[in-house]
Design a protein that fits this description.
By secondary structure, this protein is mostly beta strands. The protein is about 0% helix and about 45% strand. It has one helix and 24 strands. The strands form six sheets. The chain has a four-stranded antiparallel β-sheet, with no helix packed on it. The protein is globular. The protein starts with about 30 loop residues before the first strand and ends in an 18-residue tail after the last strand.
């Protein structure tokens, strides 16, 4: 089911390139919209200003990509940065994972100045863990997960956890799932009564019943099993569309898959010119562009020659669907 050249439309990196959800091509089109970094991750769309945020994890860099003028700006934080969640109260205020800490960052993109405040540090008993993926839910609670720094789940299994951060527990995040290995992608369905979650080494997408009022999950079941579809890769970041289909980045699989979590059906697979696909996020003014982050970490020079776009952010368009608005954090009002 892997689509081939009918999908890929090679567009050289150029900040003046127009990327739209629909264009003159009959089928899906892929655009490279940024230069490569080492390990791009955690894309997040802010529809208030039409800006895509993403990170270069181990370099501590937080980037903004302005959809309107294609300008890219960045700041560098001290530590491994992942993820980035926008705040409801202020579009220049972010809740960021930095090493094992949850940090508020106030970033003035006009002059490049920023200030930070550490809100909490988790997993004191697991000092070799880092924050990994995370998102806000509809009520503004934040869900952040952790993993072993080296993702070595063979020698260091069960070092990760999934936390929930609320206004009442800003300094004392609550453990929701423990232990996990590599806490990764998450999404809520359109009705907001299902929560989807990935612990990457399991090669599964788990579904939970979701109580929005209390932010509680229950009744775990496996919604999608990668091994059942001969997908020899790790599920990484994830998002959902208006039809309640999941879109999942395959790390080591060079592609993004579209999944029906109700039936467990693999609906489609879209190749990306980078082996390590890290995450996905709907964006654009109509939320019909799938932004895809990738990595080149651990690649040899020969491998990079074969996939020079690895580490870039790509835009996948003409997919015949769109995403849901990104929820914003509501745990603090200012820094």
């Amino acid at each position: 089911m892997l689509r081939h050249l009918v999908l890929i439309v090679a567009i050289a990196v150029g900040l003046n390139t127009e990327v739209h959800g629909s264009n003159n091509f009959d089928g899906p089109a892929l655009y490279q919209i940024t230069e490569p970094v080492t390990h791009a991750e955690c894309p997040s769309w802010d529809g208030r200003n039409n800006i895509l945020y993403y990170v270069d994890v181990h370099a501590g860099k937080m980037f903004s990509y302005d959809y309107t003028n294609k300008e890219i700006t960045s700041i560098t934080l001290e530590g491994a940065v992942s993820p980035v969640v926008q705040s409801k109260s202020d579009p220049d205020l972010f809740i960021v994972g930095l090493d094992r800490s949850i940090v508020a960052v106030k970033w003035n993109r006009e002059d490049g100045n920023y200030t930070t405040r550490t809100l909490a540090t988790v997993s004191d008993d697991q000092p070799d863990c880092n924050m990994n993926d995370g998102k806000a839910d509809k009520e503004g609670r934040i869900w952040y997960g952790t993993m072993d720094q080296d993702a070595d789940t063979v020698n260091h299994p069960n070092r990760g956890r999934l936390f929930r951060i609320t206004r009442d527990h800003v300094s004392t995040p609550e453990e929701i799932i423990s232990p996990v290995n590599v806490s990764n992608g998450m999404a809520w369905n359109k009705a907001n009564d299902k929560f989807y979650y990935i612990d990457s080494p399991t090669q599964q997408i788990a579904e939970y019943d979701y109580d929005n009022e209390n932010g509680e999950i229950s009744n775990r079941r496996v919604a999608f099993e990668l091994k059942d579809h001969d997908l020899n890769a790790s599920p990484d970041g994830m998002t959902i569309d208006v039809d309640d289909n999941l879109w999942v980045a395959l790390y080591g699989g060079g592609s993004v898959i579209k999944v029906n979590p109700t039936t467990g059906e693999l609906l489609d697979r879209f190749p990306i010119p980078a082996e390590s696909v890290t995450s996905v996020m709907w964006g654009g003014p109509d939320l019909d562009i799938l932004f895809v982050t990738t990595s080149r970490i651990g690649l040899s020079d020969d491998q990079i020659m074969k996939q020079p776009g690895a580490g870039s952010v790509f835009a996948l368009t003409n997919l015949g669907t769109s995403g849901l608005p990104v929820f914003e954090a509501d745990i603090i009002d200012n820094i």
